[in-house]
Amino acid sequence: MKLYYNRTKIVATMGPASAKKDVLLAMIKAGVNVCRLNFSHGRPEDHKAVIDIIREINEQYKTNVGILADLQGPKIRIGLVKDGGIHLVNGTHIKITTQECIGNDEQIYITYDTFPQDVQANEIILLDDGKLQLRVIETNKKDTVICEVVHGGILTSRKGVNLPNTKVSIPSLTEEDLINLQFALKYDVEWIGLSFVRTGQDIIELKHIIAQSGKAAKVIAKVEKPEAIDNIDEIIAATDGVMVARGDLGVEMPLEEVPLLQKMIAAKCRAASKPVIVATQMLESMITTPRPTRAEVNDVANSVLDGADAVMLSGETSVGEFPVIVIETMAKIVRNVEEFGYSFNTARVSDTDPSSPDYLSNAVCESAVHLAQHTNAVGIVSMTTSGYTAFQISSHRPQASTYIFTSNKQLLNALSLVWGVRAFFYDKLESTDQTIADVNGILKSEDLIKAGDVVINTAAVPIIKQGKTNMLKVSIVE
Q1: Cβ neighbours of residue 74 closer than 8 Å, sequence gap 6 or more
Q2: What is the dihedral of CA 207, 410, 349, 398, to 10 degrees?
Q3: Are the beta carbons of 253 and 261 closer than 8 angstroms?
Q4: 455 to 137, 396, 397: CA distances (angstroms)
């Protein structure tokens, strides 16, 4: 199957609009690299059906589409309200209680047992994606919080609650998350998205559960709370990748701060060789129209220029009317920026700490990128079993194509999220010279390189031990 490979990858959220095989296949042909399963919606059997279709397409068409299982996390909501909607009037007082009830003009129920203990006077409470705003007046530290309505309006049942000033005590992994996590691990998804991450410890705990399950799924930390911004360095250090989840982040923080936070997080992730996804409302108008707004086109383009590894679509592909057209549109935007503007990405800051156990391996990967540029090499060709070398080379954003060979089949799909990387299965590993000849020959047979081209090969020598990358070779394709 003929595919166009953008360097910046596309993540598409699955849903009723994209669940059929013919639609998903068309989306993959148009440029989808990773399929996101949103566990905030859908039944397990629905997600299993999509997993089966993705795996079937990968097997039938020799694609390496990855799967991101996105856990809901501790999403706080209000309960049911009278007549389906109540009117909150500016300046009036309303009680928020942890005692389940039908909400009315005087009190509403919240699905957060320790809410009265965690909030403080004068903290802000946002309802319905920030459309309504309350201010805490007092709490009895037991089951009731009295609030003033600052910005009122109609509040309907089950709306989300955001607490930008509050240090919440709810665990990052809820009981429902743990059930969904085991479901995702059972079917060997490549990536797990952890919502509402607050500290690096949240990631460490999730990785511990994954390891105890004997699985190798990598973790995406979803940054969507001010506390995560405060702890961003430790989160990036602990995780395998980051998602700039601009939906809740833009509610919990001033909107005008989000663009610069996006750039900051992207730069830090590149410096740490961790992939970063930019998400939320990228082409939202295309849920109902076949053409994006000019502002949306600029948003996608700027995310590419920020150095994002991937850009993500949500409702556009899960419930939208034009799932294939939206992928085609995003791919065109990405392609245009990459062809004429990707070199504008700021240079990655190198790790110069000689005490790092990975210092020599990192230096070889960085040297491969510089050597490829100076020799006009068409490709950097590397071997890896863990993916570490692929992440390192990608983070330098080489102009040469990046081709990764691995004997780790799950890694093939996981690398579909990483900027510029195309992965191939290879498990012979007889000798260094033979392996280099083999992988270069595979690329030549795929018409990705041709006789006379310069390629840069990296590997771990001796190759049969599969250690850290320590070898660099300039090859001229025969």
Answers
A1: 168, 170, 171, 172, 174, 195, 196
A2: -170
A3: yes
A4: 66, 17, 16
Q: 318 phi and psi, to 5 degrees?
A: -85, -40
The pLDDT value given to residue 58:
97
pLDDT tens digit string along 137-159?
Answer: 999 999 999 999 999 999 999 99
Distance of CA 259 to the CA centre of its chain: 17
Give the β-pairing of 276-279 and 241-245.
parallel
- Structure tokens that stand for 342 in this block: 């990707």
Query: In the chain, what percentage of residues exceed pLDDT 90?
Result: 86
Catalytic residue annotation: 36, 77, 222, 280
Query: What local confidence, expressed as pLDDT, does residue 430 receive?
Result: 75
Cβ atoms < 10 Å from Cβ of 263: 18
Rounded to the nearest 10 degrees, what angle do helices 175-186 and 200-212 cross at? 50
Sign of CA dihedral 22, 27, 29, 34: negative
Residue 462: per-residue pLDDT = 79
Using 50, 70 and 90 to split pLDDT, how confident is the model at 13? Answer: very high
CB-based contacts of 355: which residues, under 8 Å, 6+ apart?
none
> Side chain identity at 108, as an amino acid letter?
I
Give me the sign of the Cα torsion angle 359, 6, 417, 186. negative
Residue 244 has φ and ψ, to the nearest 5°, of -85, 95
Q: Tell me whether the omega of the peptide bond preceding residue 259 falls within 30 degrees of 0, making it cis.
A: no
Burial class (CB in 10 A: 0-12, 13-18, 19+), 176: middle
Domains and CATH numbers, the chain: 9-73+171-338 (3.20.20.60), 85-162 (2.40.33.10), 358-477 (3.40.1380.20)
